[in-house]
Amino acid sequence: MDARRVLEDVKDTVNAVGRAFFRAPERIAEEERRGWPFFSVYVRGRTAVLGDLTPEAGADTIGMLPRPSVIGSLTEVTPQASADEMVAVFSGINAAWSRRHLADTKDPERLAELLATLVDTADGAALPLFAGWQRAPRPTDPVEAVGFLIFVFREYRGGIHFAALRACGLTLTQAIALDPNARTGRLQLTGFTDEQAAELMAAVDQPELRAAYEQAWELTESAVARHLRASLTDDELAEFRDLVLALPAP
How many independent structural domains does the chain possess? Predict the structure, then answer.
């Protein structure tokens, strides 16, 4: 079976799950409970798997959110909660969100098993967020495990993509603006103002940058497809595709 085709088939579903978790009401409720700024539980929780990074290092590790906003959030909230606490909080939010959105997952035990194979066999070198979450405690509940492992698999693919973008001479901020979805409000969703979004998109409106962006995606998808091919048999690839495509709409 063509692993690249499988990756193409499941991409939209996996990304939809990731985007929905990114907006999880459970995270917003936790921020309100703590009196923390918007998105601060997300940035602190996601980077806490690497320990107590400086705010600047945390912002650089996340990459795709406005750097000043991330630095400001991490500066404020990092002293208020330990890294271990925030890993547990972030994982708990993911588990609660998964129970609510993925409860009707078809054969969650098997999908979690296939996702675990992909996560466990991936090389985390130079992919810090993936390497951290690859080794983090996992839920034992199958539905929760599916949600968690999709998040971790996306950290792998995202880390590969970040490396490809930099290899092609692009910054991560340029990549956000070059994404076709930026024109439907993604920049604003990730914290940019309307004015900042307009300036970014005007700055990247160059054919050579578009070509570099497309080259980076080709490198990303080729690398991730090779990993799928090396990790799963033909039958497992087909099973993985079918189970992912059967996921309930988040």
Answer: 1
